[in-house]
Amino acid sequence: MTTRPLPPATLAWTVWGLGAALYLIGFYQRVAPAVISDRLMAEFAISGAALGNLSAFYFYSYVVMQIPTGVLAVRCSARELLPAGAALAAAGTVLFAFAPDVTWASVGRLLIGGSVAVAFVSMLKLATHWFAPQQFALASGMALFVGIIGGVFGGVPLRMLVDAFGWRAVMLVSAAVTALLAVAIWLRVRNDPAERGYASHHPHAAGSAAHGSILRGVLEVLSYRNVWILLITPIGVAGAVLTFGGLWGVPYLRQVYGLEAGSAAAITSALLVAWALGGPLLGTLSQRIGRRKPLHVAGCAVALLCWSVLALVHLPLPALIAVLLVGGFAAGNLIIGFAFNKESVPPHLAGTASGVCNMGPLMGGMLLQPAMGWVLDRHWSGTLEAGVRIYPPEAFQAGFLLIAGCIALSLVLSLLSQETFCRQRVSP
Predict the structure, then answer these.
(1) Is the pLDDT of residue 195 over 90?
(2) Residue 414, pLDDT score
(3) How many domains does the chain have?
(4) Does the pLDDT at position 160 exceed 90?
(5) What DSSP state is assigned to residue 7?
(6) Domain that holds residue 281
(7) Residue 156 · residue 266 · CB < 8 Å
(8) Please, is 211 exposed, middle or buried when counting C-beta atoms within 10 Å of its C-beta (0-12, 13-18, 19+)?
(9) CB 69 within 8 A of CB 355
(10) Do 364 and 52 meet the contact criterion of CB atoms below 8 Å apart?
(11) Torsion on CA atoms 44, 46, 48, 52, rounded to nearest 10
């Protein structure tokens, strides 16, 4: 009997990379409102809370789709999920680009968020099939890195294009690129190396076990303490990055520090890059030391310190940038959380557990973006410039204090997690 070889690294990374490209586009869409916030507020005549809600419509559908996506990622082929998600994302982007008012813009954001929700969990599933188990933390970290590249495109490059061609035209081009990706994924991606004649890294690739209902699967994974802890902890830590880098950072830097839109977007992009670097580095380090909990707790603690400083002290710009970069890097403990979560349940529950865990950071954006907008509106003095609300520094600091409070809860819960010692749980 001939033993089939494992897939070559170039093929494995290509298959995974096409799935990651949809995550890149999803992250780009996630943070795009930050650099066009002034255009959206002026064109649709909306308040800070309304702008936060418009941006958060992406997160509403993304979060709702995580559990079904986790189950579907087990039952269906990534070749089916990923192209369908890309095609729907393209349609949602077209709707957003042509939106005559904030209602239709919100519907477009809702469709985009729900459709790209398949990307991350599908990537994790592809990683379990195409990569060795010890590479899972690296692949998860690289996933965040790829996503952040999308976030960087949603910063300075997007602002430059918007200034040159208008935000609606740029969104139409984004829709076209996403549609082309749907075709490429359909042609190249396969769920398992066996479909290309190679051996699989997945222990149960040869046959699929029977699956219960979605609700039963969710209840089963939530019976493991680490799962619900790792669901809640990213709400504060990752939610802080998504709230600042994805919406309110650019208005803050423009209104409080007097920066131009491009410079402000560059700083928020740097925050996202620090987050991207923190993910694989912290994930790899936790793998090397053979423990997840110490670095996960440390990330929460450092993030709490950083956002507390931002809430209580008006820093000079260089110091502000340094604090943001450190806080962003610490938030990379999110990747430790994904590996931590996967190891905390038996392999047959990994897809559902990943879907549940991935809800956490998105819930952070969903809750904190509009919440910070509400706090800003409560401190607004009535000043308008070209239809855009101007908020005083203390308004933003009040919003940062809210973020710090959420991260404090994250730290407490992280301390209550159970160490897995980087080993996969094999039984209930």
Answers:
(1) no
(2) 97
(3) 1
(4) yes
(5) P
(6) 9-195+213-415
(7) yes
(8) middle
(9) yes
(10) no
(11) -60
Domain-embedded: residue 264:
yes
So what's the pLDDT on residue 214? 65
- Residue 2: inside a domain, yes or no? no
Cα gap 155→416, rounded to integer Å: 37
C-alpha closest to that of 51 among 66, 72, 35, 67:
35
Ranges of H-type helices in 131-243: 136-153, 156-165, 167-188, 214-222, 225-243
Q: β-strands 384-385, 388-389: how paired?
A: antiparallel
Cβ-Cβ contacts under 8 Å for 387 (sequence gap 6 or more): 41, 42, 45
- Which residues are 385's β-sheet partners? 388
Report the first-to-last Cα separation within the chain, whole angstroms. 35
How far apart CA 361 and CA 231 sit, in angstroms, is: 8
What are the φ/ψ torsions at residue 209 (nearest 5 degrees)? -75, 165
The C-alpha atoms of residue 180 and residue 420 are separated, in whole angstroms, by 41
399 compared with 141, residue with greater pLDDT: 399
Does the pLDDT at position 163 exceed 50?
yes
Neighbouring C-alpha atoms within 13 Å toward the C-beta of 132: 5
The CATH number of residue 353's host domain is 1.20.1250.20
Residue recorded with tokens 């809430």: 311
Query: How would you label 171-188 residue by residue, b for 16+ Cβ within 10 Å and e otherwise?
Result: bbebbeebbebbeebbee
pLDDT tier at 74, thresholds 50, 70, 90: low
Residue 230 lies in a domain: yes
Helices 261-289/249-257 angle, 10° precision: 130
> If we measure between CA atoms, which residue out of 271, 289, 255, 257 comes closest to residue 379?
255
b/e map 42-72, b = 16+ CB within 10 Å = ebbebebbbbbbbbbbbbbbbbbbbbbbbbb
pLDDT tens by residue, 229-257:
999 999 999 999 999 999 999 999 999 99
Stretch (H or E) spanning 249: helix 249-257
Question: Two tokens at 326?
Answer: 């450190």
Question: How high is the pLDDT of residue 225?
Answer: 94
Residues 408 and 383: their CA atoms lie apart, in Å, by 33
pLDDT > 90 fraction of the chain, expressed in percent and rounded:
66
* Assigned domain for 423 exists: no
Per-residue pLDDT, averaged over 87-92, amounts to 97
Find where tokens 């749907």 sit: 182
Query: Whose structure tokens read 């800003």?
Result: 376
